[in-house]
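User: Design a sequence. Structure:
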């Protein structure tokens, strides 16, 4: 290979070098530290310097996997995240299609309302939703005639309330992204489907969804990552995980172990498990898509 050819080969990497260095400092190094702490005995005694840090190998992971509560929290996290992802995709895609059907003024109003929900900080949105469903002062119970019913007392009602808030602040991303993809579909394709007598649902399922597959893959993976590591909504709306920890998810469980119990190594082990699960889900999903011969 000639010298100019070798130089051209490395030119893209030179342009990417500053971003790669920044990502290395912001992403790779924290992950390395997370993994390292998960193999150590690292509690408040080690943090304060009262005791030396010792290498524990897989002891923290064995302790974690032998804890029945961990498996309960993991199952609750998976089910809750799956429900949030499905609901977010349904609401986001439905509203994206609606945006293509309404006039300019209603479309602008819906876009502004959705972007307002998207821009609201999670802690602010969670606090507002708690007030709306408050058993004493919230307007929802009064409108529905539920009296002093507490939405956060029961396990499933609390998870439902948090799910509604998560969908409320997450669907705008799906809606805007899918709407942009729909606008990029040639009008002739949709006109042909309409001339063939296809209903709106059949048009979406047979024409629009296949053409939007790359976008749907991206928003699905993003939603899985966001919803699997929900923290603020659960912590604020259920008071740190609900009564007796009935509404714990992995992120809040890791926080309790690391900071409430000062077991930083155990909290790091939970973080590593979450990272492995999310990477595994993403890789499996992408592999299945490629195996079916679909371009991403």
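Assistant: Done.
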């Amino acid at each position: 290979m000639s010298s100019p050819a070798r130089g051209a080969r490395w030119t893209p990497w030179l342009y990417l070098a500053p971003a790669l260095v920044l990502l290395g400092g912001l992403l790779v190094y924290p992950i390395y530290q997370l993994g390292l702490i998960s193999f150590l005995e690292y509690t408040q005694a080690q943090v304060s310097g009262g005791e030396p840090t010792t290498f524990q190998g897989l002891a923290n992971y064995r302790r974690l996997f032998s804890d029945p509560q961990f498996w309960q929290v993991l199952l609750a996290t998976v089910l809750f995240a799956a429900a949030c992802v499905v609901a977010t995709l349904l609401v986001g895609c439905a509203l994206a299609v609606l945006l293509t059907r309404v006039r300019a003024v209603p479309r602008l109003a819906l876009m502004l309302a959705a972007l307002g929900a998207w821009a609201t900080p999670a802690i602010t949105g969670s606090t507002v939703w708690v007030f709306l469903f408050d058993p004493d002062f919230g307007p929802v119970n009064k409108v529905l005639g539920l009296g002093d019913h507490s939405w956060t007392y029961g396990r499933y009602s609390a998870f439902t309330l948090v799910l509604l808030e998560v969908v409320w602040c997450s669907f705008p991303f799906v809606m805007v992204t899918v709407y942009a993809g729909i606008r990029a579909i040639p009008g002739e394709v949709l006109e042909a489907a309409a001339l063939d007598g296809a209903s709106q649902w059949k048009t979406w399922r047979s024409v629009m969804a296949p053409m939007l597959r790359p976008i749907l893959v991206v928003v699905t993976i993003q939603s899985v990552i966001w919803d699997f590591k929900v923290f603020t909504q659960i912590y604020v709306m259920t008071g740190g995980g609900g009564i007796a920890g009935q509404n714990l998810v992995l992120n809040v469980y890791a926080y309790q172990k690391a900071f409430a119990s000062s077991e930083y190594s155990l909290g790091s082990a939970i973080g590593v498990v979450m990272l492995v699960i999310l990477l595994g889900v993403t890789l499996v999903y992408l592999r299945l898509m490629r195996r079916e011969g679909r371009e991403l």
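The radius of gyration is 24 Å. The chain has a mean pLDDT of 88.
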